[in-house]
Amino acid sequence: MSKFSVLILGSASATPTVNRNPTAQLININHHYFLVDCGEGTQLQLRKYNINFNRIHHIFISHLHGDHYLGLMGLLQTMHLLGREKELFVYGPEDLKTILDTHFKYSKSFLKYPLQFKAVDMEQSSTIFENDKLTVNTVVLKHKIPCTGFVFREKPKTRRINPKAIEKYKVPKYAINKLKSGTDFESPEGEIIKNNLLTHDSLPSYSYAFCSDTAYFEEILPEINNVSLLYHEATFLEKDKKLAKKTLHSTAKDAATIAQQAKANKLIIGHFSNRYTQLTDLLEEAKNVFENTELALEGKEFNIAESQ
Ligand SMILES: [Zn+2]
Ligand SMILES: [Zn+2]
Prior knowledge:
The chain contains ten helices and 18 strands. It is globular and about 75 Å long. Bound molecules: zinc ion (ZN) (2 copies).
């Protein structure tokens, strides 16, 4: 069964608290796991939600503020201690490689499994991952240090075979792939059977944009246009706009305005400042601009395919 979901592992900005963890999210696309950001304690959150570490093959780090990557070293080490053998890909700013290498050098430790580090261009958006079903693009954000978001987009899907019609028209196996791509079937006797008699329409392609730490920045709009689900940070309320400007973060209203302009189907907000005890205030502020908004709280799983 097809699956496209986002599990929130951390929603706090800056420091972890007893109830909230710094940023990390697990994207599940047809049971392939992608970890996005890896704040302190992420491995404990993965354990809490029964995620098998071995199924994570790709880790994306948005930027080098500690609340987005300090959990990485611990997670990499635990994967080693658990006997991981499978290759792991880590994508992030070039300097992250130096940080990792420095740790391994001075701790005189190594990893049993191959770690492939992929430096991300922090100045212009690019495709950093692609397979036959999916692309992951970066989106350059506006923050105190270089920072990118990540956009996951499913490629257009093939048409779905109608087994009853295949039987009825006696379509041989070798013709199935062509039917999926939309061509008509020509029988050995020369009879043409229209494709739409043999297949159902393809399922929609879904998308998810993760916009990590950023000031309000309209230049991201073309990159996140029409996404099924948008995560946008909302560190502050409008009443603290000055702080947002100073620290290059967004308010809940900023996040909602971006969602509205990008024509996102749904918005989730996170990276909340610990100064707010009532997160509902942030939610309400966002909903006033973009109704279909939810808080990206720890343990919440957003099923993108079902959110349409
Ligand atoms: Zn942050
Ligand atoms: Zn930051």
